[in-house]
């Protein structure tokens, strides 16, 4: 595979698929998602004490560019003043965040279909079920990343003491948390890239997720530098400058995410071009037959040429049949493995949910909530694995080289037609 060609195709697709407009649509849904998410995080941190949100503010100061950080920090300050409402705020925020993030995932699925050139054909229930499952997984993982990002300094020491970790473990976490968080975000993006389009192509973990994470970090740093030193948003927008900077930052972030999806789509397309399915064989054979049979050739020469072409066709079709059977075997094995894994995860999920019910009856809130989250994650993962395993097994059945058989029939017909001319 030529990476230079992949990058050229990605650059062409960037303009052909109007990623600028798609990023603007995703920015709208991002605005609806990010503030309920802040409600959840601030309310949860408020349970640990009045000063527990300071690490969150510090992380925003490091990541958010320019005046957008003032907007986010101001929202956190307003939420902190709502004392005594941590529990209700958390419940309302979770529901609002899931509802809003579901809209974002739906918009991302439509954008992915545009990037892959696919038409949505999945049943409504399957599409909305997948949309909700992706939303829950993404929200939970991003919430975990947010909690990991704010777990530093005094808050990390408090959590470490609560969980029984020593000072060394806390120090290691303060140093290594950002690569871990970046890897988790990359995994979420890989999941979105693979499951969002109607016709999923390419590997499960392509380079798009890694590219998106790296470019987002660079773009955020560059945009923050521009706003701090060269931007004139205050003069242009006045009191709305902070909001405008925040929206531009979200737009850049979504543009980078879509660029990662475009890269994965073009990698898959390049691999398909290098390993064609054999749809052009009839045209090639017809052309060869026409060129190899001038009008002045004798019947014996025509028979010899036809025999040679048939021999070459049979060898090629046997090779393609072996490749097709090997690919179907891999799909069947992967599907069976995912089905088995789904069964194991489902058993663990049921066990954890049962434990959560027991702990809930005992009115032990924190262990119950943790067990409930883990059980829900396991069940969602089991459902996704089962759906993928089903599609893989369906793609591998029947275990015969159907394309190769059809290709042989078409090639024989082409040779017969050429001889009758």
From TrEMBL:
<feature type="transmembrane region" description="Helical">
    <location>
        <begin position="89"/>
        <end position="111"/>
    </location>
</feature>
<keyword id="KW-0812">Transmembrane</keyword>
<dbReference type="GO" id="GO:0005886">
    <property type="term" value="C:plasma membrane"/>
</dbReference>
<dbReference type="Pfam" id="PF03631">
    <property type="entry name" value="Virul_fac_BrkB"/>
</dbReference>
<feature type="transmembrane region" description="Helical">
    <location>
        <begin position="368"/>
        <end position="388"/>
    </location>
</feature>
<feature type="transmembrane region" description="Helical">
    <location>
        <begin position="176"/>
        <end position="193"/>
    </location>
</feature>
<dbReference type="InterPro" id="IPR017039">
    <property type="entry name" value="Virul_fac_BrkB"/>
</dbReference>
<feature type="transmembrane region" description="Helical">
    <location>
        <begin position="205"/>
        <end position="227"/>
    </location>
</feature>
<feature type="transmembrane region" description="Helical">
    <location>
        <begin position="20"/>
        <end position="48"/>
    </location>
</feature>
<keyword id="KW-1133">Transmembrane helix</keyword>
<keyword id="KW-1003">Cell membrane</keyword>
<protein>
    <submittedName>
        <fullName>Uncharacterized protein</fullName>
    </submittedName>
</protein>
<dbReference type="Pfam" id="PF07332">
    <property type="entry name" value="Phage_holin_3_6"/>
</dbReference>
<feature type="transmembrane region" description="Helical">
    <location>
        <begin position="336"/>
        <end position="362"/>
    </location>
</feature>
<feature type="transmembrane region" description="Helical">
    <location>
        <begin position="132"/>
        <end position="156"/>
    </location>
</feature>
<feature type="transmembrane region" description="Helical">
    <location>
        <begin position="239"/>
        <end position="261"/>
    </location>
</feature>
<dbReference type="InterPro" id="IPR009937">
    <property type="entry name" value="Phage_holin_3_6"/>
</dbReference>
<keyword id="KW-0472">Membrane</keyword>
């Amino acid at each position: 595979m030529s990476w230079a060609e992949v990058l050229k195709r990605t650059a062409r697709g960037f303009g052909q698929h109007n990623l600028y407009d798609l990023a603007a649509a995703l920015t709208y849904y991002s605005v609806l998602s990010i503030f309920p998410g802040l409600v959840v995080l601030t309310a949860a941190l408020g349970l640990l004490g009045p000063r527990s949100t300071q690490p969150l503010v510090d992380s925003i100061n490091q990541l958010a560019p320019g005046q957008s950080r003032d907007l986010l920090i101001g929202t956190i300050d307003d939420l902190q003043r709502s004392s005594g409402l941590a529990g209700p705020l958390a419940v309302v925020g979770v529901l609002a965040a899931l509802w809003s993030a579901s809209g974002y995932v739906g918009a991302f699925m439509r954008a992915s279909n545009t990037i892959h050139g696919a038409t949505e054909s999945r049943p409504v229930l399957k599409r909305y079920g997948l949309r909700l499952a992706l939303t829950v997984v993404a929200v939970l993982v991003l919430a975990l990343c947010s909690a990991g990002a704010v777990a530093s300094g005094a808050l990390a020491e408090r959590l470490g003491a609560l969980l029984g970790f020593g000072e060394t473990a806390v120090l290691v976490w303060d140093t290594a948390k950002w690569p871990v968080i970046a890897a988790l975000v990359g995994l979420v993006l890989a999941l979105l890239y693979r499951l969002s389009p109607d016709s999923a192509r390419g590997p499960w973990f392509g380079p798009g997720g890694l590219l998106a994470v790296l470019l987002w970090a660079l773009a955020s740093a560059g945009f923050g530098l521009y706003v701090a030193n060269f931007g004139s948003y205050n003069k242009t927008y006045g009191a709305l400058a902070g909001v405008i900077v925040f929206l531009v930052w979200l737009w850049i972030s979504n543009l980078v995410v879509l660029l990662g999806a475009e890269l994965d789509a073009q990698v898959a397309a390049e691999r398909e071009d290098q390993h064609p399915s054999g749809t052009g064989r009839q045209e090639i054979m017809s052309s060869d037959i026409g060129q190899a049979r001038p009008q002045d050739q004798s019947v014996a020469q025509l028979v010899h040429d036809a025999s040679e072409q048939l021999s070459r066709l049979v060898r090629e079709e046997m090779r393609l049949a072996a490749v097709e059977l090997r690919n179907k075997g891999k799909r069947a094995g992967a599907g069976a493995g995912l089905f088995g894994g789904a069964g194991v995860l489902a058993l663990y999920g049921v066990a954890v949910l049962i434990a959560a019910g027991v702990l809930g009856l005992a009115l032990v809130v924190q262990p119950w909530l943790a067990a409930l989250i883990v059980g829900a994650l396991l069940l969602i993962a089991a459902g996704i694995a089962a759906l993928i395993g089903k599609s893989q097994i369906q793609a591998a059945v029947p275990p015969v080289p159907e394309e190769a058989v059809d290709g042989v029939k078409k090639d024989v017909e082409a040779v017969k037609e050429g001889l009758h001319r």
